Amino acid sequence: MSTMEDIIRCCYSAYERKNRAEMDSLLTEDFTFTSPVDDNISREIYFSRCWPNCEHIDHFEIKTLVADGDEAIVIYECQPSNGGARFSNTERFKMRGEKIQHVDVFFGAETAPAVSEEEIRGVIEKWAEAIRKKDVAGVIAQYSADSVRFFLAPPLQATMPLRENLENWFNSFQRKIDCEIRDLQISVSNEVAYAHSFNRVVGTRTTGEKVDMWLRETFGLRKVDGRWLIAHAHESVPFYMDGGGRAALDLQP
Questions:
Q1: How far apart are CA 250 and CA 212, in angstroms?
Q2: What is the pLDDT of residue 186?
Q3: Which CATH code for domain 113-236?
Q4: What is this structure's pTM?
């Protein structure tokens, strides 16, 4: 029979080793999580928005672990994986039997805007990686259900369902699509954010046409059920003001 201390140490170890299956086995089905930027979120939302942060953690050093009844207080120092400065934090665990029912995180080095910005960068990278793989479901997963989209192709506002739009676009390329993001800038408030970047798209159409172009991308994002999602997408390229109306597809950042 595992002690409470053993289970809590296993929790930090699973986070260090990025072992989702082990962490999953340590939590109750109704597990909840609270932090300065999370208000009693569910197990599902925890895994979707908080668990990916384990990629940025190298290890924890537990300084204090005090258990009393079905609760425990942990004080630790954490070493980020990017070589950044160590930071301290305090967490409270509530147990049910041999599983963790709730965790409260009290503070840390990261501020709420910094945490949100990191999550948004993750959303945009997942969006770009799904485009590279021509993964329709992966792209859609980053958008809110009621998103507004101003794409390069007519009409002025995309009216075609996003799935159909993506399938048509992906099918127009022979193989993969290279998608590069440069100079990404993100501004965040509590529930909404916007991001802009220069994006490069490279590939070969089924017609044999070579595509290599830079465009301007702006995303408006908002929190939906605790997750940052793209609520508005706006793509554009400049055009030459010489009366010909030609798109300036030869520009580079």
A1: 9
A2: 95
A3: 3.10.450.50
A4: 0.67
